[in-house]
Design a protein that fits this description.
Length: about 500
Amino acid sequence: MTETTQRTLPPGRPDELRAGDVDRVTDELCRLLPAWLPAQRWYADKGHGIPVVRPVLVEVVAPGTPALLQAVVRTDDGQSYQLLVGAVTGPADTGPGAHVPPDAVIGTSAGPDADGRWLTLYEAGGDPDLLSRLLDRFVSAEPCGALEYHHIPGATIPAGLRARPLTAEQSNTSVAFGDRMMLKVLRRIVPGANPELEMLAALERAGDVPSAAPLAWAQIAARHDAEPTTLCILQEFVPSRGDGWSIATTQAEDCIRGTCESVAPLGGFSDEAFGLGQATAQVHTALARQLETRPLSFAEVAELTDTLIGRLEDAVAQVPDITPYARGLRTAYQDLREVARRGNPLPIQRIHGDLHLGQVLRAEHGWILIDFEGEPGHPLAERRHLQPAVRDVAAMLRSFDYAAHHALGEILGGPPRAQASRDLRATRLARRAAAWAVHSRRAFCAGYTAAGGQDPRTSPVLLRAFEADKAVYEVLYEARNRPEWLPIPLAAVRRLAQAGQSAG
């Protein structure tokens, strides 16, 4: 991604950006962002000091007061971030005005021009007015400096819809426009083909697949030897009853308490899990038909095995609690190599890459898979790799386990504690939580198979290996961020290290 020249505007009203103000905005961002960036939920390098910030691109995409700027900055660790910046200027004795949300302010400064005008910069990802004006750029599809706005062929993008910022996103910013469209503003950006845009387009070509239709995207234009860089993706808005996590944890809590109305009390989510398995299989089948698929060679399986073992060794070094189970986990990974040695092919394809209950929506007629960008913390090239479809299945099975234990924690008033510290009631409820997870996992696998996917239970070595890899990742995450929740993935690690197979 190359540095670009900042835009300037012709003189206008006293309270609008003037010629040269964009340079001032750029300078102020470089001054203010080192203190502001680390507090943002999508900032990747928390806990490593104050970053040095350099501008890559600053474009005025909606002039006026406030003005909207799309900016890209790079920090000294090599990460690039997109900002939507609201800019308000005016006489020094007037203040920034009530339309600037206090908790969104990046900073305010006065001068340096002769009349001492102040300049307030704020994060505009929560400003409905400015976001609605950003939509106008997608409607017109006219370039703005180094920025390009492209339509998916045949897509219709209505104008004049009111923006509604959504709050559930963690690594990006999502905005709904009425009940018609949803804009994903990517925060951490890298040059190259965006996996979500690529896979949404493939699923749209396949037709009748449970995913949202892509409509348009914004990118930094290719320059010299640099690839285009995707900044935003506009797609169909999916009205829903909620995401899978909220629905599953609510039903799990009811069933654990014994108030579930299901005919099978401990399987209160089974019908939904079956449908979710069907939707996942439909997406995998469509991706396999539209994009590349092939079998892994034995050398590639050996390399995959080494990678899994390497991740395990890193986790053991950081979280010694895994040590008693390391031998069993290594065996689970090494079994992959033995399966390949016996001549059993391991097909690989494009997959979701970060599938869990929070990545699915319960629409009126079934489940919809969303957020196909993969794990945001992984390199772009890695997110575009072909992988076994069972990796997605394993990740979803782990999500059912988390949903059950989260619901248990809500009932017990906190994260699950060690088994020895539980009273008899807590032990009974924990058993019900485990049973709910088992029923849901089995139903998911059955639905996946019914929709044409290969029954994951017939590949126990694969399923065990990828579940173990996911559980090890979870151990690392919890140890770093929520140590009180560490017993959840550690219990899975113990089960997977000891079991010869695990399909629920």
